[in-house]
Amino acid sequence: MSASNTTAPAGTRERSIGELFGELASETGTLVRQEVQLAKTEMAQKATFIGKQAAIILVGALLGVVALITLSGALVLLLGQAMPLWAAALIVTGLMGLAAFLVANKGLSALKNHDLNPTQTIASLKDNKQWATKQLQ
Predict the structure, then answer these.
(1) Are 57 and 112 a contacting pair, CB within 8 Å?
(2) CA 97 – CA 45 distance, rounded (Å)
(3) Of 31, 41, 99, 34, which is closest to residue 66 (Cα–Cα)?
(4) Contact 91, 78 (CB under 8 A)
(5) What φ, ψ does residue 42 adopt, rounded to 5°?
(6) Distances, alpha carbon 107 to alpha carbons 25, 57, 61, 127, in Å
(7) Taking a C-beta distance cutoff of 8 angstroms, is the pair 43, 118 a contact?
(8) pLDDT (tens digit, 9 = 90+) per residue, 107-122?
(9) Which are the contacts of 85, defined by CB distance < 8 A and separation ≥ 6?
(10) What is the pLDDT at residue 2?
(11) What is the gyration radius of the CA atoms in the chain, in angstroms?
(12) What are 47-102's pLDDT values in tens digits?
C-alpha cells in the first residue's frame, strides 16, 4: 500500500465525527482530572507554607511570653534601683511586648506577601482551554 494512494483500502475507514468527539470528550475528562490533581497538589504546597509561617508566628509569641517571664523580674529589679518598681515594671513590659510584636509581625508579613492563588493550575487551565478550542475548530 502506497502512501500516495488516495483511496482507503478495503476494511479500513476514517473515524467518524462522533468517534472524534467521543475521543475528545474522553481526553478532556482525563485532562480535567489531571487539572484537579494539580490544583490539589498546589494548594497542599501552599497550605504547608502557611502552616510553617503560622508556626513561626507561634514561636514568636511564645518567645515573647518566655522573655517576659524570665527577663522581666531581673530588669524590673535592676531598674527598680533607679526608680519606683512600678515604673520599672511598666518599662520592661513595654520593651518585651515590642520584641514579641516584631517577631510575630515578621511571620504575618511573609503570609501577606505570599500569593495564595493556584497560579500554575490557572495557567494550565488557560492552556487547556486554548487546546480544546483548537481541537473543536
Answers:
(1) no
(2) 33
(3) 99
(4) no
(5) -65, -40
(6) 46, 5, 11, 35
(7) yes
(8) 888 888 877 777 887 8
(9) 76
(10) 44
(11) 32
(12) 999 999 999 999 998 998 887 788 788 889 999 999 999 999 898 889 888 988 99
Contact 64, 99 (CB under 8 A): yes
Amino acid at 66: V
Prediction pTM value: 0.41
Task: For residue 12, name the pLDDT band (cuts at 50, 70, 90).
Answer: low
Where do the structural domains in the chain lie, given as residue ranges? 41-136
Q: Cell numbers 512600678 label which residue?
A: 86
Q: d(Cα 137, Cα 135) in Å, to the nearest integer? A: 6
Residue pLDDT, tens place only, 87-102: 998 988 898 889 889 9
Cα 3 to Cα 15: distance, rounded to the nearest angstrom: 18
